[in-house]
Design goal:
Layout lengths: L1 H13 L4 E9 L2 E13 L12 H7 L12 E9 L3 E13 L7 E12 L6 E9 L5 H12 L6
Antiparallel strand pairs: 1-2, 2-6, 3-4, 4-5, 5-6
Length: 155
């Protein structure tokens, strides 16, 4: 468990995360794990052109995924209201996430991503990501990630 948590922390740091929260629990012989990461993203495309940090514009730029059959990956796109912060763009679903940059392998994960505009800037967004490999508890983890994200504040 310690080795897994160290690897998760290293991977998060290497990808630019400013914060990582990990949970690993053995519940009646069933391993449960989840992570929450917080990163700051620049709001520019690959050509350096500024992108909108308006949550509705961000949501409009994100793609929903419809599962074609039971067990397929899926993603919904919406906006949410975070107390004391206001609107934010969000995706949530069960998605295939790359194992590592440049690696074609993926892991199917419960994933919630919330994009929060940084106040008094026009070129930064905070990305709060919650992920878990425990697909059978997808709805519960989406609720947990929503609850955790709702506590986010700028200080």
């Amino acid at each position: 468990m310690s080795s897994m948590l160290r690897k998760m922390a290293k991977d998060a740091h290497d990808s630019g995360a400013l914060y990582l929260g990990c949970m690993a629990e053995n519940f009646d012989g069933i391993p449960l794990s989840a992570t929450v990461t917080v990163s700051v993203l620049g709001a520019r495309n690959k050509q350096g052109v500024p992108l909108s940090t308006d949550p509705r514009a961000i949501a409009d730029s994100l793609r929903a995924i419809t599962a074609r059959r039971e067990g397929d990956a899926w993603r919904k796109v919406t906006t949410v209201d975070i107390p004391e912060l206001g609107p934010a763009a969000r995706t949530y679903g069960v998605e295939d996430v790359p194992v590592a940059e440049g690696d074609s392998r993926t892991l199917r994960m419960v994933l919630t991503q919330t994009y929060v505009p940084v106040p008094k800037t026009a070129d930064q967004v905070v990305l709060i990501s919650g992920a878990s490999p425990v697909l059978d508890l997808a709805d519960a983890f989406h609720d947990i990630f929503d609850a955790v994200t709702s506590t986010f504040r700028f200080v």
